[in-house]
Structure formats: structure tokens, C-alpha cells
Amino acid sequence: MMKNLKLLIIGFALIVGVNSYSQTIFGKWKTFDEETGNEKSIVEIYEQNGKAYGKILQLLEKGKENNLCDNCSGAKKGQPIKGMEIINGLTKDDDEWNDAKILDPKTGKEYKCYIVLEEDNKLKVRGYLGFSLIGRTQYWTRM
Questions:
Q1: Is 103 exposed, middle or buried (CB count within 10 Å of its CB: 0-12, 13-18, 19+)?
Q2: Is residue 7 part of a domain?
Q3: What's the per-residue H, E or C state across the chain?
Q4: Is residue 10 part of a domain?
Q5: For position 133, which CATH number holds?
Q6: How far apart are CA 86 and CA 58, in angstroms?
């Protein structure tokens, strides 16, 4: 009887732990090409000192796995896109993470951004210039 109770408690703890983790923006996310809909990359969003950062773990497009950020400026110019930090220091504001920039390695441009967890496995990522009305939105899916 005690063995079954211990297994039940462990199982419940695992379910609660996985469920609470999936309700955050943190983790690995798959991105998609806006034009083709094809899988583009895997981005890890992680927390450091109370802020959220994102880096590209893997490029999924065939033949582009080792691309460099040729259009980037500054220290990122010519650097490998794989491993590159593309989101730099989002701050939590209720259900939204904002007040940071996101880099588009394809164009080398940086945009203001905010991120909202729309569903447990769906992340809304909005990059914009000036006002959030002028920009574009991507939806990433949890890995």
C-alpha cells in the first residue's frame, strides 16, 4: 500500500512539474519561415537575472545550417547564426514579456519586441518599429 502511495505522489509531482514548466515562455521553440511555412530554426528562451533571452540552437533549413550573419552589424557581423543571441533581455509585464529587441538574422535588423504565451505550446512573437502596430508577428511552437 505504501509503495503504491509513493508512486502516486511521484507521478503527481511529475505531472504538476511538467505542466507548470509548459506554462512559461522558457524552453525550446520551433520557428517557421513566414513565406514558405517551412521549419526554420530552434530557439531557446531562457531566464537570466529575471530577464528573458533567446538564442538560436539550430538552423533547420537544408544547406543553411552553418550560415553566417552577413547582414548583421557590429560584433555580430559575419558570426555564425547558430548559437547567436537574438532576443536580449525581455522584462515580464503581467502576461507579456517586453522592453527588449529581437534580431532578424536574415536582414540583420533589430526590432523592438514583445512575447506572449498564447497557449501552452504557442508563443506569439511580435517585432516592430516605433509602435507595435507597425511590425510583424510570428508564432512559434514549443518543442
A1: buried
A2: no
A3: CHHHHHHHHHHHHHHHHHHHHCCCCCEEEEEECCCCCCEEEEEEEEEECCEEEEEEEEECCCCCCCCECCCCCHHHCCCECCCCEEEEEEEEECCEEEEEEEEECCCCEEEEEEEEEEECCEEEEEEECCCCCCEEEEEEEEC
A4: no
A5: 2.40.128.520
A6: 13
Give the model confidence (pLDDT) of 111-129 as tens digits.
999 999 999 999 999 999 9
Domain total for the chain?
A: 1
- Could you read off the pLDDT of 76-106 as tens digits, one per residue? 999 999 999 999 999 999 999 999 999 999 9
Residue at 33 is within a domain: yes
Cβ atoms 134, 116 nearer than 8 A: no
